[in-house]
Each structure stands twice: as structure tokens, then as C-alpha cells.
Amino acid sequence: MIDTAFVGSRSAPFTADVERGRLRMFNEVVGAPGAEFTDLDAARRAGHPDLPVPPTFLFGLDLADPSDLLAEMGVDLDRVLHVEQGFVYHRPAFAGQTLTFAPVITDIRARGALEFVVRDTAVTGPAGEPVADLHQVIAVRAAGEGGEGP
Q1: Chunked mean pLDDT (size 10), the chain, 150 residues
Q2: pLDDT value at position 76?
Q3: Domain shared by 91 and 42, yes or no
Q4: 98-111 and 114-124 beta bridge pairing
Q5: How far, in Å, CA of 10 to CA of 121, rounded?
Q6: Which of 6, 20, 48, 135 could pair with 43 as two cysteines, CB 3.0-4.6 Å apart?
Q7: Which residues contact 120 (CB under 8 A, 6 or more apart)?
């Protein structure tokens, strides 16, 4: 069982750069609509200072979290299942910016052979202005529930 005392635990805030090349590749792979997502000139003609960041891209940057809070909680990553993600955007983000991520564990609950961990992350821009709130739920399978290796 994951100790519910971890609810409220915060990872140290960390920063991630929105790199134009990585963003362009992401936008091409997911088929972002419109040239302004992959072409800098088109982005500027559309009134953006640089390539705009689509909503799900921030989750990829959030994975850059250098903390090992799940390991500290005793979570075996081989037993983790992605359940849900959501986001609320406060303002657009663009290539070339450095964003700050501040994750917190907001809930831990059990249902049957699964334990659910909820992580909410506030994303802020270079001047500390709110950019987005990310919400993620993972499930952790109990030992012997299809998560054991060979």
C-alpha cells in the first residue's frame, strides 16, 4: 500500500526549455493543424512570437521531472498504468521559453487491486505567470496483478 501521508508532497520545482526542434517534431507527429505549428514564418504571420505549444506537449516536458517521488513512495514503475490526464490553459506558451513545473501529489486512493496516485502540476512562464495546470492520474497494480516480470 502506498502511504497516504504522501498526499501534499511536492517535488522541487524544475524548469524545462521549449525547444523549437523538439516542438516542431512533436507537432508533425501528432498532425497539429496549420503550418503555424511547424513553420516559424507561418507562426509569425499568424501573430505568434514563435511556434505555439499544443496542449499535450507540456506533459512531455513534465516527464523531465528530475525528482524520484514515485520511487520515494515505493512505487514500482513496472506496475504503473496511465489512467487520465487533463489540463487547463491560462495563456499560450511558445518555443524558446523556459517554463517552470511545480508538481504535487493531491490524492492517493485504493480500489481493489489498484492504487491511484493523482499528481497536479502548476506550469508557469518566465515571469512567474500561470501558463497551465496539468492533472495526471496513474494506477499502480498490486504485486501479482499482471505486473510481475518473467
Answers
A1: 93 91 88 88 96 87 68 88 94 95 95 95 95 95 61
A2: 87
A3: no
A4: antiparallel
A5: 9
A6: 48
A7: 103, 104, 106, 133, 134, 135, 136
Spacing of C-alpha 46 from chain mean position: 27
The whole model's pTM is what?
0.86
Q: Estimate the share of the chain in helix, then strand, then coil, as percent rounded to the nearest 5.
A: 25, 35, 40
User: b or e along 74-97 (b: 16 or more beta carbons within 10 Å of the residue's beta carbon)?
Assistant: ebeeebeeeeebeeeeeeebbbeb
Query: Amino acid identity, residue 76?
Result: D
What is the pLDDT, as a whole number, of residue 148? 47
Check residue 143 and give its pLDDT: 76
The Cα 70–Cα 76 span in angstroms is 8
* 126 and 90 share one domain: yes
Domain with 98 in it: 1-18+66-150
